[in-house]
Design a protein that fits this description.
Number of helices of chain A: 7
Largest sheet of chain A: 5 strands, antiparallel
Order of helices and strands of chain B: HHHHHH
Largest sheet of chain B: none
Structural class of chain B: mainly alpha
Number of domains of chain A: 2
Number of strands of chain A: 9
Radius of gyration of chain B: 18 Å
Number of helices of chain B: 6
Number of strands of chain B: 0
Radius of gyration of chain A: 23 Å
Distance between the termini of chain A: 34 Å
Helix content of chain B: 40-55%
Strand content of chain A: 15-25%
Oligomer: heterodimer
């Protein structure tokens, strides 16, 4: 029976009670201890797919685990042949995992995403001479081409405005974070960035976000999510000599 | 975690799936050295997962906005199809106060999503997946359902 891997933690971190794992019926969680490390695993469900319910279960297990101690969260969908494959791997790179756990200990990930907003196009036009020119042109001689050019210019302007606003907010959060990591490109987002934040600074982070987001209100739509398991800060240090 | 509470806003929470989907699917350790069973199609399914999760999460957020609305104040817009026009469209994201406020008026017309919405939607999600339907089709059928509801409402009014 292949096993589903949720994450790697320290041996003493408890497996959360009452949390259901990935699968139908939801899989039970168990801990594979290897020296000072432990992997939290469950039986891999047959026909594992990226279903909403499974992804949600994966996330909830990780949130519960991260509440109990440092955690290196696994990406959704990592399946391993058997217990020995996991413990063998933990033993083989024990120092790397321990160092990676030290890095995230007492910290969490906060993720900032920003998208353009369509509100306030009037302000945008007022501030941009090129938009004013295109608008006048479009009103004088309406047509498909000029409409496309005008619309494209507005879209570009909205994006640029959102990027500027998002960077302002991101720089405020960077000042409170231990590390910063750009996230994957996400459709519709002009900025996706994660912050590694000390657990006791999350409230401060939220307050700073609220203040900064207020100052750029109407220019970008900003979403700060967290505290999250440290998805973006869990890479193993490069092996020595590599 | 809901922090902004002074207006009708759905602040992102740690449990909101859509906003962290990229992290769950693309970040986190993989441990390639492990005997990783390559999940057939999981890379492709990521795309579908984004669509499915996006639309369900959008409905859940709108339902939450709905539940907080003060219906004694009249709304100015009733364009429901616009609401459900696209999960990745601007109406789907309600983080900023302005966006949420402007959406809020439209949401008033999208009533009918009760407390059981979450479970019902998840069931639908699961069923459709079991039937191997494309998420796109599912999304399409949902939005036509919304249109039906909106027409019905127009007939009443």
């Amino acid at each position: 029976m292949s096993i589903y891997l949720y994450g790697v933690t320290r041996a003493e971190v408890p497996v959360p009670r009452g949390v259901r794992g990935v699968g139908d019926p939801p899989g039970k969680l168990r801990k594979l201890v290897a020296g000072g490390l432990a992997a939290v695993v469950g039986d891999a469900p047959e026909g594992l797919r990226a279903r909403r319910r499974y992804v949600q279960a994966h996330q909830e297990v990780l949130l519960a685990l991260a509440a109990g101690g440092p955690l290196l969260p696994t990406r959704f969908g990592v399946v391993v042949a058997d217990d020995e494959a996991v413990t063998g791997r933990l033993h083989a790179d024990a120092h790397g995992y321990a160092a990676a756990l030290d890095r995230v200990a007492g910290r969490c990930e906060m993720n900032l995403k920003a998208s353009p907003v369509e509100a306030g196009v009037a302000d945008l036009v007022r501030e941009d001479p090129r938009l004013q020119r295109l608008r006048q042109e479009s009103r004088r001689r309406p047509g498909y081409d000029v409409s496309i050019r005008l619309g494209e210019a507005v879209e570009t302007g909205l994006r640029r405005r959102a990027v500027g606003a998002a960077q302002q907010v991101a720089s405020v959060l960077s000042g409170l974070a231990d590390e910063v990591q750009a996230g994957p490109e996400v459709p519709g987002c002009v900025l996706n960035v994660s912050f590694l934040v000390a657990a006791d600074r999350v409230a401060e982070c939220r307050a700073a976000f609220d203040g900064a987001a207020d100052r750029v209100a109407g220019r970008a739509e900003l979403r700060l999510t967290g505290p999250l398991p440290c998805y973006s800060f869990s890479g193993l240090p490069a092996p020595a000599g590599a | 975690m809901t922090v902004i509470t002074d207006e009708v806003v759905c602040a992102p929470r740690a449990g909101t799936l859509y906003d962290v989907l990229d992290l769950i699917l693309d970040r986190g350790i993989v441990i390639d050295v492990f005997l990783r069973v390559s999940l057939v199609g999981i890379e492709i399914l990521k795309v579908d997962a984004r669509i499915v999760v996006a639309s369900v999460d959008t409905y859940l957020r709108f339902a939450e906005i709905c539940n907080r609305l003060d219906l004694d104040h009249d709304s100015t817009s009733r364009t429901v199809p616009e609401l459900f026009g696209g999960a990745s469209g601007s109406a789907a994201r309600v983080g900023a106060k302005k966006a949420a406020t402007s959406v809020g008026g439209k949401v008033k017309d999208a009533l009918g999503m009760g407390d059981g919405h979450d479970d019902e939607d998840d069931e639908r999600d699961e069923r459709d997946e079991d039937d191997d339907k494309q998420p796109r089709r599912r999304t399409a059928s949902r939005s036509s359902g919304s249109r039906t509801r909106s027409r019905h409402r127009d007939d009443e009014g």
